Protein backbone atom coordinates (compact mmCIF):
# COMPACT_ATOMS: atom_id res chain seq x y z
CA UNK A 1 0.00 0.00 0.00
CA UNK A 2 1.36 3.40 -0.98
CA UNK A 3 0.28 6.86 0.02
CA UNK A 4 1.60 9.39 -2.49
CA UNK A 5 4.70 7.25 -2.70
CA UNK A 6 5.19 7.07 1.05
CA UNK A 7 4.93 4.10 3.33
CA UNK A 8 1.84 4.60 5.53
CA UNK A 9 2.53 5.19 9.20
CA UNK A 10 1.97 2.40 11.66
CA UNK A 11 -1.17 2.45 13.79
CA UNK A 12 -0.79 4.71 16.81
CA UNK A 13 0.60 3.13 19.94
CA UNK A 14 -2.39 2.09 22.08
CA UNK A 15 -0.88 3.92 25.02
CA UNK A 16 -1.17 7.19 23.10
CA UNK A 17 -4.86 6.78 22.33
CA UNK A 18 -6.28 5.64 25.62
CA UNK A 19 -6.88 7.08 29.05
CA UNK A 20 -5.67 3.96 30.81
CA UNK A 21 -2.25 3.92 32.41
CA UNK A 22 -2.16 0.20 31.67
CA UNK A 23 -3.64 -1.14 28.41
CA UNK A 24 -6.76 -3.26 28.63
CA UNK A 25 -4.87 -6.17 27.18
CA UNK A 26 -1.13 -6.08 26.78
CA UNK A 27 -0.04 -6.75 23.18
CA UNK A 28 1.84 -9.98 22.73
CA UNK A 29 4.71 -10.45 20.29
CA UNK A 30 3.87 -12.13 17.05
CA UNK A 31 5.90 -13.46 14.15
CA UNK A 32 6.18 -11.29 11.04
CA UNK A 33 3.22 -11.54 8.67
CA UNK A 34 3.94 -13.33 5.42
CA UNK A 35 1.42 -12.83 2.66
CA UNK A 36 1.30 -15.88 0.43
CA UNK A 37 0.42 -15.93 -3.21
CA UNK A 38 -3.29 -16.06 -4.00
CA UNK A 39 -3.15 -19.71 -4.98
CA UNK A 40 -1.47 -20.66 -1.70
CA UNK A 41 -4.10 -18.72 0.27
CA UNK A 42 -6.87 -20.60 -1.51
CA UNK A 43 -5.25 -23.98 -0.94
CA UNK A 44 -4.94 -23.41 2.81
CA UNK A 45 -8.56 -22.47 3.44
CA UNK A 46 -9.91 -26.02 3.63
CA UNK A 47 -7.70 -26.84 6.62
CA UNK A 48 -8.61 -23.57 8.32
CA UNK A 49 -12.32 -24.14 7.90
CA UNK A 50 -12.06 -27.71 9.16
CA UNK A 51 -10.70 -26.36 12.44
CA UNK A 52 -13.66 -24.00 12.81
CA UNK A 53 -11.43 -20.96 12.30
CA UNK A 54 -12.55 -19.43 9.08
CA UNK A 55 -9.62 -17.25 8.08
CA UNK A 56 -6.84 -18.92 6.14
CA UNK A 57 -4.49 -16.64 8.06
CA UNK A 58 -5.54 -18.03 11.43
CA UNK A 59 -2.13 -19.51 12.07
CA UNK A 60 -0.65 -16.03 11.78
CA UNK A 61 -2.93 -14.44 14.34
CA UNK A 62 -1.61 -13.28 17.67
CA UNK A 63 -2.02 -15.63 20.64
CA UNK A 64 -5.21 -15.10 22.60
CA UNK A 65 -4.90 -12.43 25.21
CA UNK A 66 -5.78 -12.67 28.89
CA UNK A 67 -9.43 -12.08 29.68
CA UNK A 68 -10.28 -8.38 29.80
CA UNK A 69 -12.42 -9.12 32.81
CA UNK A 70 -9.26 -10.19 34.63
CA UNK A 71 -7.27 -7.21 33.46
CA UNK A 72 -9.58 -4.26 34.05
CA UNK A 73 -12.42 -3.39 36.46
CA UNK A 74 -15.66 -2.18 34.95
CA UNK A 75 -15.23 1.22 36.59
CA UNK A 76 -12.45 1.98 34.12
CA UNK A 77 -15.14 2.56 31.49
CA UNK A 78 -16.87 5.32 33.46
CA UNK A 79 -17.85 8.48 31.63
CA UNK A 80 -15.44 10.57 33.63
CA UNK A 81 -12.52 8.87 31.93
CA UNK A 82 -13.51 9.95 28.42
CA UNK A 83 -12.02 13.49 28.13
CA UNK A 84 -8.40 12.38 28.09
CA UNK A 85 -9.21 9.57 25.68
CA UNK A 86 -11.00 11.96 23.33
CA UNK A 87 -8.09 14.39 23.41
CA UNK A 88 -5.64 11.62 22.62
CA UNK A 89 -7.78 10.33 19.75
CA UNK A 90 -8.07 13.79 18.27
CA UNK A 91 -4.30 14.05 18.24
CA UNK A 92 -4.06 10.66 16.58
CA UNK A 93 -6.85 11.20 14.03
CA UNK A 94 -4.80 12.94 11.26
CA UNK A 95 -2.20 10.19 11.41
CA UNK A 96 -4.82 7.45 11.31
CA UNK A 97 -6.70 9.04 8.43
CA UNK A 98 -3.55 9.27 6.35
CA UNK A 99 -3.04 5.55 6.78
CA UNK A 100 -6.38 4.60 5.28
CA UNK A 101 -6.67 7.10 2.42
CA UNK A 102 -6.91 5.27 -0.89
CA UNK A 103 -4.42 6.33 -3.55
CA UNK A 104 -4.60 3.65 -6.21
CA UNK A 105 -2.19 3.67 -9.13
CA UNK A 106 -4.25 1.12 -11.05
CA UNK A 107 -7.89 2.14 -11.08
CA UNK A 108 -10.42 -0.64 -10.84
CA UNK A 109 -13.99 -1.27 -11.82
CA UNK A 110 -16.03 -2.26 -8.75
CA UNK A 111 -19.57 -3.62 -8.47
CA UNK A 112 -21.36 -3.21 -5.14
CA UNK A 113 -24.43 -5.43 -4.71
CA UNK A 114 -26.26 -3.42 -2.07
CA UNK A 115 -29.12 -4.41 0.20
CA UNK A 116 -32.28 -2.32 0.10
CA UNK A 117 -32.98 -2.41 3.83
CA UNK A 118 -31.40 -2.68 7.25
CA UNK A 119 -28.33 -1.00 8.63
CA UNK A 120 -25.88 -2.45 6.11
CA UNK A 121 -27.10 -0.38 3.16
CA UNK A 122 -25.10 2.60 4.34
CA UNK A 123 -21.86 0.57 4.13
CA UNK A 124 -22.21 0.23 0.37
CA UNK A 125 -23.01 3.92 0.06
CA UNK A 126 -19.89 5.06 1.92
CA UNK A 127 -17.73 2.44 0.20
CA UNK A 128 -18.87 3.72 -3.19
CA UNK A 129 -18.11 7.33 -2.23
CA UNK A 130 -14.63 6.43 -1.02
CA UNK A 131 -13.78 4.49 -4.18
CA UNK A 132 -15.12 7.22 -6.45
CA UNK A 133 -13.07 9.83 -4.61
CA UNK A 134 -9.98 7.71 -5.36
CA UNK A 135 -10.80 7.54 -9.06
CA UNK A 136 -12.21 4.02 -9.32
CA UNK A 137 -15.21 3.16 -11.48
CA UNK A 138 -18.17 2.14 -9.33
CA UNK A 139 -21.55 0.59 -10.07
CA UNK A 140 -24.06 0.11 -7.25
CA UNK A 141 -26.68 -2.56 -7.89
CA UNK A 142 -29.47 -2.12 -5.34
CA UNK A 143 -31.95 -4.90 -4.78
CA UNK A 144 -35.50 -4.16 -5.90
CA UNK A 145 -37.18 -1.30 -7.74
CA UNK A 146 -35.91 2.25 -8.04
CA UNK A 147 -39.46 3.55 -7.62
CA UNK A 148 -40.18 1.76 -4.34
CA UNK A 149 -40.87 3.59 -1.09
CA UNK A 150 -37.63 2.24 0.35
CA UNK A 151 -35.69 4.33 -2.13
CA UNK A 152 -37.17 7.50 -0.62
CA UNK A 153 -35.14 6.90 2.56
CA UNK A 154 -31.41 7.39 3.11
CA UNK A 155 -28.94 6.32 1.97
CA UNK A 156 -30.84 5.63 -1.28
CA UNK A 157 -32.30 9.14 -1.36
CA UNK A 158 -28.70 10.39 -1.50
CA UNK A 159 -27.58 8.34 -4.48
CA UNK A 160 -27.25 11.55 -6.49
CA UNK A 161 -24.03 12.03 -4.51
CA UNK A 162 -22.72 8.91 -6.23
CA UNK A 163 -23.88 9.71 -9.74
CA UNK A 164 -22.59 13.28 -9.53
CA UNK A 165 -19.17 11.82 -8.66
CA UNK A 166 -19.24 9.59 -11.74
CA UNK A 167 -20.78 6.46 -10.21
CA UNK A 168 -23.52 4.38 -11.78
CA UNK A 169 -26.63 3.19 -9.94
CA UNK A 170 -28.88 0.38 -11.13
CA UNK A 171 -31.65 -1.70 -9.59
CA UNK A 172 -32.51 -5.33 -10.09
CA UNK A 173 -32.41 -8.89 -8.85
CA UNK A 174 -29.01 -10.19 -7.66
CA UNK A 175 -30.10 -13.65 -8.81
CA UNK A 176 -29.77 -12.27 -12.35
CA UNK A 177 -26.90 -9.92 -11.74
CA UNK A 178 -25.54 -10.22 -15.29
CA UNK A 179 -28.72 -8.83 -16.78
CA UNK A 180 -28.95 -6.13 -14.11
CA UNK A 181 -25.53 -4.73 -15.00
CA UNK A 182 -26.03 -5.10 -18.73
CA UNK A 183 -23.11 -7.41 -19.33
CA UNK A 184 -20.53 -5.03 -17.87
CA UNK A 185 -17.28 -6.50 -16.55
CA UNK A 186 -15.69 -5.78 -13.16
CA UNK A 187 -12.41 -6.30 -11.34
CA UNK A 188 -13.99 -6.44 -7.88
CA UNK A 189 -17.42 -7.45 -6.59
CA UNK A 190 -18.69 -6.72 -3.07
CA UNK A 191 -21.82 -8.55 -1.94
CA UNK A 192 -23.41 -6.34 0.70
CA UNK A 193 -26.79 -7.99 0.44
CA UNK A 194 -26.92 -11.73 1.05
CA UNK A 195 -27.08 -13.30 4.49
CA UNK A 196 -26.97 -16.91 3.31
CA UNK A 197 -25.67 -18.97 0.43
CA UNK A 198 -28.99 -19.00 -1.44
CA UNK A 199 -28.77 -15.22 -1.79
CA UNK A 200 -25.03 -14.91 -2.47
CA UNK A 201 -24.33 -17.97 -4.63
CA UNK A 202 -25.84 -16.51 -7.85
CA UNK A 203 -23.68 -13.41 -7.47
CA UNK A 204 -20.55 -15.40 -6.64
CA UNK A 205 -21.11 -17.85 -9.50
CA UNK A 206 -21.65 -15.03 -11.97
CA UNK A 207 -18.52 -13.25 -10.70
CA UNK A 208 -16.51 -16.46 -11.06
CA UNK A 209 -17.70 -17.13 -14.60
CA UNK A 210 -17.14 -13.49 -15.55
CA UNK A 211 -13.50 -13.52 -14.49
CA UNK A 212 -13.89 -11.16 -11.51
CA UNK A 213 -10.51 -11.04 -9.79
CA UNK A 214 -11.58 -10.24 -6.22
CA UNK A 215 -14.76 -11.10 -4.31
CA UNK A 216 -15.62 -9.36 -1.04
CA UNK A 217 -18.47 -10.17 1.31
CA UNK A 218 -20.15 -8.29 4.16
CA UNK A 219 -20.70 -10.91 6.85
CA UNK A 220 -21.52 -10.24 10.52
CA UNK A 221 -19.74 -10.37 13.86
CA UNK A 222 -22.96 -11.85 15.19
CA UNK A 223 -21.84 -15.28 13.95
CA UNK A 224 -19.24 -15.65 16.73
CA UNK A 225 -19.97 -18.05 19.54
CA UNK A 226 -19.95 -16.52 23.01
CA UNK A 227 -16.52 -16.44 24.57
CA UNK A 228 -15.00 -16.24 28.03
CA UNK A 229 -12.29 -13.99 26.59
CA UNK A 230 -13.86 -10.95 24.93
CA UNK A 231 -13.32 -9.23 22.61
CA UNK A 232 -13.78 -11.50 19.61
CA UNK A 233 -10.77 -11.71 17.31
CA UNK A 234 -10.52 -13.23 13.87
CA UNK A 235 -10.23 -17.00 14.15
CA UNK A 236 -12.57 -17.32 17.14
CA UNK A 237 -15.16 -20.09 16.91
CA UNK A 238 -18.30 -19.30 14.93
CA UNK A 239 -21.81 -20.72 14.76
CA UNK A 240 -21.57 -23.25 11.95
CA UNK A 241 -25.31 -23.03 11.36
CA UNK A 242 -25.14 -19.30 10.58
CA UNK A 243 -25.89 -18.42 6.97
CA UNK A 244 -22.92 -16.04 6.75
CA UNK A 245 -20.57 -18.90 7.63
CA UNK A 246 -21.81 -20.93 4.67
CA UNK A 247 -21.15 -17.98 2.38
CA UNK A 248 -17.63 -17.49 3.72
CA UNK A 249 -16.82 -21.15 3.09
CA UNK A 250 -18.21 -21.07 -0.43
CA UNK A 251 -16.38 -17.97 -1.62
CA UNK A 252 -13.16 -19.36 -0.13
CA UNK A 253 -13.59 -22.41 -2.35
CA UNK A 254 -14.42 -20.39 -5.46
CA UNK A 255 -11.97 -17.49 -5.40
CA UNK A 256 -8.23 -17.22 -4.87
CA UNK A 257 -8.69 -13.55 -3.91
CA UNK A 258 -11.54 -13.15 -1.43
CA UNK A 259 -12.15 -11.52 1.92
CA UNK A 260 -15.01 -11.37 4.40
CA UNK A 261 -15.84 -8.44 6.67
CA UNK A 262 -17.76 -8.81 9.93
CA UNK A 263 -19.35 -5.55 11.13
CA UNK A 264 -21.30 -4.90 14.33
CA UNK A 265 -23.29 -1.78 15.15
CA UNK A 266 -22.57 1.35 13.14
CA UNK A 267 -23.47 5.00 13.06
CA UNK A 268 -23.14 7.63 10.38
CA UNK A 269 -25.14 9.98 8.21
CA UNK A 270 -27.41 8.03 5.90
CA UNK A 271 -28.00 5.11 8.23
CA UNK A 272 -31.69 4.18 8.31
CA UNK A 273 -31.59 1.72 11.21
CA UNK A 274 -32.13 3.16 14.67
CA UNK A 275 -29.11 3.09 16.92
CA UNK A 276 -28.26 6.40 18.52
CA UNK A 277 -31.73 7.66 17.50
CA UNK A 278 -33.30 5.25 19.99
CA UNK A 279 -31.47 7.04 22.80
CA UNK A 280 -32.15 10.53 21.40
CA UNK A 281 -35.89 9.78 21.17
CA UNK A 282 -36.04 9.35 24.94
CA UNK A 283 -33.46 11.89 25.98
CA UNK A 284 -35.00 14.86 24.16
CA UNK A 285 -38.41 14.04 25.67
CA UNK A 286 -36.98 13.95 29.19
CA UNK A 287 -37.86 10.30 29.54
CA UNK A 288 -35.82 7.72 31.49
CA UNK A 289 -33.71 5.43 29.32
CA UNK A 290 -34.47 1.79 30.23
CA UNK A 291 -31.43 -0.45 29.83
CA UNK A 292 -31.58 -4.21 30.44
CA UNK A 293 -29.14 -5.69 32.95
CA UNK A 294 -26.63 -3.58 34.85
CA UNK A 295 -25.64 -1.37 31.91
CA UNK A 296 -21.99 -2.41 32.00
CA UNK A 297 -22.31 -4.72 29.00
CA UNK A 298 -19.72 -3.84 26.37
CA UNK A 299 -20.43 -3.42 22.69
CA UNK A 300 -18.81 -1.89 19.62
CA UNK A 301 -20.21 1.01 17.64
CA UNK A 302 -18.20 2.15 14.62
CA UNK A 303 -18.66 5.09 12.31
CA UNK A 304 -19.41 3.76 8.85
CA UNK A 305 -16.43 5.65 7.42
CA UNK A 306 -14.21 3.19 9.30
CA UNK A 307 -15.95 0.29 7.63
CA UNK A 308 -15.70 1.78 4.16
CA UNK A 309 -12.03 2.66 4.59
CA UNK A 310 -11.25 -0.93 5.57
CA UNK A 311 -13.03 -2.21 2.46
CA UNK A 312 -11.22 0.30 0.28
CA UNK A 313 -7.85 -0.87 1.59
CA UNK A 314 -8.76 -4.43 0.64
CA UNK A 315 -9.42 -3.25 -2.92
CA UNK A 316 -6.16 -1.33 -2.88
CA UNK A 317 -4.12 -4.25 -1.53
CA UNK A 318 -5.82 -7.45 -2.71
CA UNK A 319 -2.79 -9.59 -1.94
CA UNK A 320 -2.76 -8.49 1.69
CA UNK A 321 -6.50 -9.11 2.02
CA UNK A 322 -6.68 -12.41 0.14
CA UNK A 323 -8.17 -15.30 2.08
CA UNK A 324 -8.76 -13.32 5.26
CA UNK A 325 -11.53 -12.54 7.70
CA UNK A 326 -11.72 -8.98 9.02
CA UNK A 327 -13.67 -7.74 12.02
CA UNK A 328 -15.07 -4.59 10.45
CA UNK A 329 -15.34 -2.56 13.65
CA UNK A 330 -13.74 0.33 15.49
CA UNK A 331 -11.02 -0.38 18.03
CA UNK A 332 -12.88 0.70 21.18
CA UNK A 333 -15.82 -0.64 23.13
CA UNK A 334 -18.54 1.31 24.93
CA UNK A 335 -20.80 0.27 27.80
CA UNK A 336 -24.56 0.41 27.31
CA UNK A 337 -24.80 3.01 30.09
CA UNK A 338 -21.93 4.87 28.47
CA UNK A 339 -23.80 5.03 25.18
CA UNK A 340 -26.79 6.61 26.92
CA UNK A 341 -24.59 9.18 28.66
CA UNK A 342 -22.67 10.02 25.50
CA UNK A 343 -25.91 10.53 23.58
CA UNK A 344 -27.16 12.83 26.32
CA UNK A 345 -23.89 14.76 26.26
CA UNK A 346 -24.21 15.14 22.49
CA UNK A 347 -27.70 16.58 23.01
CA UNK A 348 -26.45 18.86 25.77
CA UNK A 349 -28.78 17.49 28.46
CA UNK A 350 -28.74 15.01 31.32
CA UNK A 351 -30.15 11.51 31.33
CA UNK A 352 -31.82 9.19 33.81
CA UNK A 353 -30.97 5.53 33.31
CA UNK A 354 -33.25 2.78 34.62
CA UNK A 355 -31.95 -0.80 34.80
CA UNK A 356 -34.29 -3.77 34.65
CA UNK A 357 -34.44 -7.54 34.31
CA UNK A 358 -36.30 -8.37 31.05
CA UNK A 359 -37.46 -11.77 32.35
CA UNK A 360 -38.83 -10.29 35.56
CA UNK A 361 -40.58 -7.48 33.72
CA UNK A 362 -41.95 -9.81 31.04
CA UNK A 363 -40.56 -8.10 27.93
CA UNK A 364 -38.41 -9.27 25.05
CA UNK A 365 -35.17 -7.31 25.34
CA UNK A 366 -34.65 -7.66 21.57
CA UNK A 367 -37.78 -5.60 21.00
CA UNK A 368 -37.32 -3.22 23.92
CA UNK A 369 -33.67 -2.29 23.33
CA UNK A 370 -31.58 -1.75 20.16
CA UNK A 371 -28.49 -3.67 21.31
CA UNK A 372 -27.80 -7.18 22.53
CA UNK A 373 -28.20 -7.69 26.25
CA UNK A 374 -24.70 -9.12 26.66
CA UNK A 375 -21.04 -8.35 26.03
CA UNK A 376 -20.84 -8.11 22.25
CA UNK A 377 -17.75 -6.58 20.77
CA UNK A 378 -14.82 -7.50 18.59
CA UNK A 379 -11.35 -6.21 17.85
CA UNK A 380 -10.14 -5.26 14.32
CA UNK A 381 -6.80 -7.03 14.74
CA UNK A 382 -6.50 -8.48 11.23
CA UNK A 383 -7.15 -5.16 9.47
CA UNK A 384 -4.46 -3.44 11.49
CA UNK A 385 -1.92 -6.20 10.93
CA UNK A 386 -2.63 -7.04 7.29
CA UNK A 387 -3.92 -3.80 5.78
CA UNK A 388 -2.28 -1.13 7.93
CA UNK A 389 -5.78 0.14 8.77
CA UNK A 390 -6.49 2.47 11.69
CA UNK A 391 -9.80 3.43 13.23
CA UNK A 392 -10.98 7.05 13.21
CA UNK A 393 -14.21 6.53 15.14
CA UNK A 394 -14.49 9.11 17.92
CA UNK A 395 -17.82 8.26 19.49
CA UNK A 396 -18.34 11.42 21.60
CA UNK A 397 -17.67 13.65 18.59
CA UNK A 398 -19.46 11.44 16.08
CA UNK A 399 -22.56 11.46 18.26
CA UNK A 400 -22.58 15.27 18.24
CA UNK A 401 -22.71 15.12 14.44
CA UNK A 402 -25.49 12.56 14.58
CA UNK A 403 -27.50 14.61 17.07
CA UNK A 404 -27.29 17.68 14.86
CA UNK A 405 -28.74 15.66 12.02
CA UNK A 406 -31.39 14.18 14.32
CA UNK A 407 -32.44 17.63 15.54
CA UNK A 408 -32.56 18.96 12.00
CA UNK A 409 -34.85 16.14 10.88
CA UNK A 410 -37.61 17.20 13.27
CA UNK A 411 -37.92 13.69 14.66
CA UNK A 412 -37.60 14.98 18.22
CA UNK A 413 -40.83 16.97 17.88
CA UNK A 414 -42.95 14.17 16.44
CA UNK A 415 -45.55 12.30 18.50
CA UNK A 416 -44.16 8.93 19.53
CA UNK A 417 -45.48 6.06 21.65
CA UNK A 418 -43.34 4.32 24.26
CA UNK A 419 -45.57 1.41 25.24
CA UNK A 420 -42.77 -1.04 26.08
CA UNK A 421 -40.89 1.62 28.00
CA UNK A 422 -43.96 2.40 30.06
CA UNK A 423 -44.47 -1.28 30.85
CA UNK A 424 -40.88 -1.55 32.02
CA UNK A 425 -41.02 1.62 34.08
CA UNK A 426 -44.28 0.59 35.72
CA UNK A 427 -42.81 -2.82 36.61
CA UNK A 428 -39.84 -1.24 38.38
CA UNK A 429 -41.98 1.38 40.11
CA UNK A 430 -40.74 4.31 38.10
CA UNK A 431 -43.32 6.45 36.33
CA UNK A 432 -42.04 8.13 33.16
CA UNK A 433 -41.17 11.79 33.46
CA UNK A 434 -43.28 12.54 30.40
CA UNK A 435 -45.52 10.40 28.26
CA UNK A 436 -46.46 10.27 24.60
CA UNK A 437 -44.30 13.02 23.13
UniProtKB/TrEMBL annotation:
Domain NAD-dependent epimerase/dehydratase: 118-328
GO cellular-component term (any): cytosol
Gene Ontology molecular function, alphabetical: UDP-glucose 4-epimerase activity
Protein name from the UniProt record: Chloroplast stem-loop binding protein of 41 kDa a, chloroplastic
GO BP: monosaccharide metabolic process
Positions of the UniProt region annotated as Disordered: 1-31, 53-75
Pfam families, per database record: Epimerase
Residue ranges, compositional bias (Polar residues): 13-24
Amino acid sequence: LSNNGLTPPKSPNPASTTHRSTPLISPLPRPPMAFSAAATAAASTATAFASGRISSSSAQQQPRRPSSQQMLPSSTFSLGAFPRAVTARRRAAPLARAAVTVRAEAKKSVLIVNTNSGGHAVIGFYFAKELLAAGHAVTVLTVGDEGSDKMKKPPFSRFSELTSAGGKTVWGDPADVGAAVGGASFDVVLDNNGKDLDAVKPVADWAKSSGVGQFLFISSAGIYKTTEEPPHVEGDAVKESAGHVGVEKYIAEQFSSWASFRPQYMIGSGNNKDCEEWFFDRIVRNRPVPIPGNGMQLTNIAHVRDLSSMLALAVESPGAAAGKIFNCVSDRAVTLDGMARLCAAAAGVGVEIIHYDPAAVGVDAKKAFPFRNMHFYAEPRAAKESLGWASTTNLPEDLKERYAEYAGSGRGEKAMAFDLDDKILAAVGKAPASVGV
